[in-house]
Amino acid sequence: MRILGHTSVRKRLATLAHQGVIGQSYVFFGPQGVGKSLCALEFAATLCGEENFEPTAEKPHPFDVMILRPETEVKRGVTKERSLSAEQSRDGIQFLSRFPVSGRYRVLIIEDAHRLSLSAQNVLLKTLEEPNPSAVILFVTHEIGSLLPTILSRVERVRFGFVPEALLREEGASFFPTVEQALPPFFFSLGRPGILIQASENTESFALTQQRLGTLFRLSTLSLKERLRLAEELALNVPETIRLLEWWLPGLHAQGVKLVERAKMQRFFGFLSDVEESRAILRTTQSNARLVLEKLFLSL
Q1: How confident is the model at residue 184 (pLDDT cuts 50, 70, 90)?
Q2: Residue 67: is its pLDDT beyond 70?
Q3: Are residues 100 and 233 in the same domain?
Q4: Is residue 275 part of a domain?
Q5: Domain boundary among 126, 142, 159
Q6: pLDDT class for 272, splitting at 50, 70, 90?
Q7: C-alpha dihedral sign at 38, 39, 40, 43
Q8: Are strands 72-75 and 78-81 parallel, antiparallel or unpaired?
Q9: Which positions ≥6 away from 30 have C-beta within 8 Å?
Q10: In sequence order, what are the beta bridge partners of 108?
Q11: Please, are residues 162 and 34 in contact by the beta-carbon 8 Å criterion?
């Protein structure tokens, strides 16, 4: 399985699997797009006795692995992510209740675990309190604070960080031979291998994403009408817009620290705080995305 970075974390997990020193549940947490889900799948495959597993369209994961992830839904032309329901948690528990087919364990991977509803988390809590010896649950999230304290107290934490820019350039160039020419250095500086994967596998879609990110960086030069139009466009796909804002933030910060005048720096970092607040609102509430973005874009 091709994964960029996280060598020490992956070695530690492999050692645990080979020695049989396994906890009943883990939370893989860290920034979005750094490779947590791939590392979780690699660990799960090792636990299931398929150490050299390579995902394919026909077999995306080992038989003894189940993956839960939020589904997207479109309402009135707006794309949003649905929460993971209690029923989905029960399906996962039912899967874990069966004996493994090949290895010693069955593994449930919950991607974007912060999207678990409160009832879904409570359903899982009982399993965490009375674990099945052959069952392992891997929570994967970039918002660990959204999980219940009672869940966090019962899981082992595995932290993931950004992948160093130098490593991304070196390994990314060989892993995706044409990506380095297609991507500006800025994207490598974000430390997120997921961006390289998206750029190489969905060229047309990523070109649009790159265009919109460039427009965000030119926000101060846009007219009132152009800002309102941009807010309208971005509000149509909330998950994608949340990612855009997350990528925009480090670039804005880099611009802000270059300012010399104190008054300008204070205003700029005030706007930076507004961007973070808007991202949090879009991520955690059902607020009208267009109104949130219009307010943000008009504040600069």
Answers
A1: confident
A2: yes
A3: no
A4: yes
A5: 159
A6: very high
A7: positive
A8: antiparallel
A9: 36, 142, 159, 160, 161
A10: 66, 137
A11: yes
Domain end (from 124, 159, 194): 159
* Same domain? 44 vs 106: yes
pTM of the predicted structure, to 2 decimals:
0.89
**187 occurs within a structural domain:** no
DSSP per position, 105-136: -EEEEETTGGGB-HHHHHHHHHHHHS--TTEE
CB 202 within 8 A of CB 254: no
CB neighbour list of residue 297: distance below 8 Å, 6 or more residues apart? 219, 222, 227, 228, 230, 231
DSSP code for 220: G
Task: Report long-range pairs for 217-222 (Cβ below 8 Å, ≥24 apart).
Answer: 217/248, 217/251, 219/297, 219/300, 220/300, 222/297
Q: Which two tokens stand for residue 281?
A: 């609102």
Residue 144's domain comprises 7-159
Contacts of 116 (CB under 8 A, 6+ apart): 83, 84, 89, 110, 124, 146, 147
pLDDT tens for residues 193-252? 988 888 888 888 888 999 999 999 999 999 999 999 999 999 999 999 999 999 999 988
Q: And the tokens for 35?
A: 């490779």
What's the rounded Cα separation, in Å, for the pair 77 and 90? 31
Span 132-182, pLDDT tens digits: 899 999 999 999 999 999 999 999 999 999 999 999 888 776 656 655 556
149/207 same-domain check: no
Residues 209 and 133 in one domain: no
Residue 58 within any structural domain of the chain: yes
In the prediction, which pLDDT does 178 show?
58
Query: Is the domain of 14 the same as that of 143?
Result: yes
